[in-house]
Amino acid sequence: MRSKIVAGNWKMNKNLTETEALVSELVAKVPDTTAEVIIAPTFVNLQSAAKHVENSIIQVAAQNMHFADNGAFTGEISAEMLKDIDVDIVILGHSERRSHFGETDDLLAKKVNQAIEKGMRVIFCFGEELEDRKSGNHFNVVASQLKNGLYALPAEAWSKIVLAYEPVWAIGTGETASPEQAQEMHAFIRKEIEEAYNSGISEKVTILYGGSVKPNNAEEIFSQPDVDGGLIGGASLKCDDFTAIIKAI
Ligand code: PEP
């Protein structure tokens, strides 16, 4: 059985007071579930969030990290710094990191390797732009993001990898992929990983869908056989919406 996961990417939202309020509300209201529930507040509020979730099923993830152990990398955060505050999950490769901050497949491969070496779990995001889908190039784009970002990993590292397919045209736009489009791509991703590694790995890896998942569409998307949960942006900032999405899984 693959793990089901609902993860909330808070992006650059919520100050400390707001973070504590939302985390406390989530801890009180998170539904009973066998799925993993993860939230990713901004760096400066991770420590507080990690403390607040200590006695709940909620786990805390970072939204990014650097590939080096330490050193002259002004403004950056290392894997050890995250682990030191009990954060051992990191989101890497989000399309906003790729497009606004120039993160390339090569850079992401270094970050993924470092996270794995440090014993962290990685939620690895990837997905095509609208033009790629319109031109029918979406499968090629996704295949190359997977290959360039992840295929240097040894087979045993895959137990620490969660994939998040996020078509860029569906992120924050209110336009979600149809359940059929999500299923088609997730099945393709699983097949690619089977070819690159083996079916043991491809059948076990959790593949999340991300892109305008809301309480009113979550159940339909999550009911697809190769969709193992969601990476949620906007709707993770409201307790009622996020808990409704958790219920949908
Ligand atoms: C995201 O940022 O990963 C995301 C899926 O955002 P939204 O749910 O707002 O589209």
Any chance you could write out the topology, listing elements then pairs?
Elements: E1 5-9, H1 16-29, E2 36-40, H2 46-52, E3 58-60, H3 79-84, E4 89-92, H4 95-100, H5 105-117, E5 121-126, H6 130-134, H7 138-150, E6 161-165, H8 179-196, H9 199-204, E7 206-210, H10 218-222, E8 229-232, H11 239-248
Parallel strand pairs: 1-2, 1-8, 2-3, 4-5, 5-6, 6-7, 7-8
The protein binds phosphoenolpyruvate (PEP).
**Alpha-beta classification:** alpha/beta
What string, H for helix and E for strand, traces the elements in order? Answer: EHEHEHEHHEHHEHHEHEH
Q: Would you count the extended β strands for me?
A: 8
CATH superfamily: Aldolase class I
Given this structure, which CATH class is correct? Alpha Beta
Topology-level CATH name: TIM Barrel
Principal-axes shape call? globular
Fraction in beta strands: 5-15%
- The low-confidence runs, each spanning 5 or more residues with pLDDT under 50, are none
What gap, in angstroms, lies between the N and C termini?
Answer: 14 Å
Number of helices, where a helix is a run of at least 4 consecutive DSSP H or I residues? 11
Named at the architecture level, the CATH assignment is Alpha-Beta Barrel
What does this 3D model show about the protein?
This protein is an alpha/beta fold. It has a single domain (5-63, 78-248), classed as Aldolase class I (TIM Barrel). 41% of the residues lie in helices and 15% in strands. It is built from eleven helices and eight strands. It has an eight-stranded parallel β-sheet with strand order 3-2-1-8-7-6-5-4. Strand 7, helix 10 and strand 8 (229-232) form a beta-alpha-beta unit. It is globular. The mean pLDDT is 97. The structure holds phosphoenolpyruvate. The site of phosphoenolpyruvate (PEP) has 13 residues, from strand 8.
